[in-house]
Every structure is written in C-alpha cells, then in structure tokens.
Amino acid sequence: MKNNTWNIPLLENLPEEVQKKLIKHSEHITYQKDSYLFREGELVDSICVIRKGRVKLTRFDALGRENIIMILSDNDTIWESMFLDGSVYPYSAVTLSSATVYKIHKNDFIRIVDDPTAAMNIIMLLSRKLHDANERNMLLSTKNPIARLAGFLLYNVDRSHDMNVSLKLEDIAASMSLRAETVSRKLKELEALQAVERTGHGKLKILNREKLKSIYENDGCC
Question: Quick check: 2 pLDDT over 60?
Fold first, then answer.
C-alpha cells in the first residue's frame, strides 16, 4: 500500500522508513513572514520542503522591479538545481506568511536515497516542472491584461485545489508583469462579471471558474 505519511511529492514513492529517516535528519526551521529562506546567488546545498506556509520565488531586474517567478505552499519543494555541482540559486525565496520548512542536506539525500523508484520519481517531477513552466510562459505571452489575470487565477486555484487566492495586489502584479493599478482595474471588471469576489485585504474567492476559463481562452472575451 502506498504511503502518504508526509505527502511530499519528491519523497512520496520512497519506502516509509526512508522518508522518516530523511525527515529525521533534516533541519526544521520556522520562519516569520517576510523572511528569506535563501538569497539569489547563494550556493545550493539543500532541498527545501515547505511543510506549512507560503513562499514566493522572486528576483529583481536591473531597474529594481520585482518579478515573482512562482508562489509555493504546503508540501511544495525547492530542489531542481541541487544535483548540479557548484549551482547557485537564480532567485530568492521569501515567506509570504509564517512558514515551517524542512531543509534536507544534499549529501544526506544522496546517501540515503539509492533506489530506482526514487530516480523515476525525480524524472516525473522534472517533467511536471517543465510542463508547469510552459504553462506559465504561455500565460505571460497573453497580451490582454484581463485574460492574463484570469489565466493567473486559474493557474493558482488549479495548483492549490482551493477556490480562495490569498495574495496582495502587488504580488499578483509582480507575478504577471503588470502594473498594480492595471491589476486593480481588471479585478473590478472580473467582479462585475461575478467571476471573482474580494473577501478581504489580499484575499479573493473564485466564484465562477468556467467564466475565468472562457475569458482566458478567448483573450478577454466572455
């Protein structure tokens, strides 16, 4: 029977005793909101498992503008560059909420994991990451701002399986390469279409997923 003790995709196909050993040897850290897990340019030496909380992967361009690459949540893992010698992080990881993180050192992972199933699991996860990156590239290539915003909201609810989106306006804008003022206007338009509802500061509820999908797929038309 498949073990789901930890519900961590990178580890879930490993034997339960191996998962427990990895978690036991990991460093458990609690971060406050707006804390750095690591900074761009630092050496990659660990797998970071986000057990609880939300973390953004972000970098700044030459003009000091923030670009959010991805927003991660419970049981997501930052690990893709770990197996490359001398690899450094191409982005910073910053908490959007208080967060509990397990850091599994590269050497511990390699020493403990010696299983063909683990290798296949990593290949599958890399394929999923590539598919995810292609989806984001398609999203960012969408010219119409309301279509891009609709696609972004769909992307988030489909990843989290939660119809609520907890992100500040500035974070949505930085994720979409749009101005915060533009995002605010387009959110009002989506509210008027009864596709979304603002339920609080930095909180949205998706009311009509199919309408968002139609707006995204039809380049802003309902």
Answer: no
